């Protein structure tokens, strides 16, 4: 039985369980002890336990289901910022995970009708196409399909496709990449998704479409990034604008 000063009990419970979840000792989907069981284990009240569980819920460690209890969430989901313009390599460098890029295609091809409409060019005009799978912890869970205007990006070396295209574009071609419009949707998986990714039994996939512009506003890249549902969440930060002279 754990005996603690009252004011520190809820934070101790929170720290204890968040550490167990982060370390993998408590795996995703596992039900944690009930409020009464935790209250007995930590010699405290159910109200204090409830406060700790609320903190765990708010910080994405557990999901509370009314009438059933609290269950551990998958903390191995990877956060990709919605509003930022950041390469996969830059995200990967922050993860500290086993990551590999598999290049399936890197060639100049005639542009299909759907892609030509997105890049605002004529159908069958040549575009530089790169198709890559992102393998994380041994599973291929992202499929990136990039299309570049050859007038801006005449070629992409194999080494850049395997490592970081943006490092090549900015470091070697000295392109000044400015902003991107993004569209996010959930769609049915395709046969290509099944072939190139490890999708298990998932029937849908998260699709993020990027329209990337240079500082002179020229659209030069269209990207379709296809993410397995269970591994990714897209995050953003929003602040409500305050009207002058109208305090809350």
Automatic annotation (TrEMBL):
Keyword flag DNA-binding? yes
Record-linked Gene3D superfamilies: Chorismate lyase-like (3.40.1410.10), Winged helix-like DNA-binding domain superfamily/Winged helix DNA-binding domain (1.10.10.10)
Source organism: Paenibacillus riograndensis
Record's superkingdom?
Bacteria
One biological process term from GO is:
negative regulation of DNA-templated transcription
What InterPro entries does the record tag this protein with? Bact_HTH_transcr_reg, Chorismate_lyase_/UTRA_dom_sf, TreR, Tscrpt_reg_HTH_GntR, UTRA, WH-like_DNA-bd_sf, WH_DNA-bd_sf
Name of the protein described by the UniProt record:
Trehalose operon repressor
MF-aspect GO terms? DNA binding; DNA-binding transcription factor activity
Question: Which keywords accompany this UniProt record?
Answer: DNA-binding, Repressor, Transcription, Transcription regulation
PROSITE patterns named in the record? HTH_GNTR
Q: Tell me yes or no: is Cell membrane among this UniProt entry's keywords.
A: no
HTH gntR-type domain residues: 7-75
């Amino acid at each position: 039985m754990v005996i603690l000063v009252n004011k520190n009990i809820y934070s101790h419970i929170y720290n204890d369980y968040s550490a167990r979840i982060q370390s993998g000792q408590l795996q995703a989907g596992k039900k944690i002890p009930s409020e009464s069981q935790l209250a007995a284990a930590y010699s405290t009240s159910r109200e204090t336990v409830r406060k700790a569980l609320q903190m765990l819920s708010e910080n994405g460690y557990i999901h509370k289901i009314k009438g059933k209890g609290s269950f551990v969430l998958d903390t191995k989901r990877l956060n990709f910022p919605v509003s930022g313009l950041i390469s996969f390599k830059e995200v990967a460098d922050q993860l500290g995970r086993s990551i590999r890029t598999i290049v399936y295609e890197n060639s100049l091809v005639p542009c299909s009708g759907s892609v030509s409409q997105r890049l605002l060019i004529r159908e069958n005009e040549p575009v530089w196409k790169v198709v890559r799978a992102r393998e994380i912890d041994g599973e291929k869970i992202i499929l990136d399909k990039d299309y570049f205007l050859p007038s801006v990006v005449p070629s992409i070396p194999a080494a850049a496709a395997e490592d970081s295209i943006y490092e090549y574009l900015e470091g070697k071609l000295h392109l000044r990449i400015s902003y991107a419009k993004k569209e996010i949707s959930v769609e049915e998986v395709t046969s290509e998704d099944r072939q190139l990714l490890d999708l298990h039994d998932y029937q849908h996939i998260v699709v993020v479409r990027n329209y990337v512009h240079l500082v002179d506003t020229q659209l030069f890249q269209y990207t379709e990034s296809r993410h397995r549902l269970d591994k990714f969440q897209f995050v953003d930060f929003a602040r409500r604008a305050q009207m002058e002279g109208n305090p809350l």
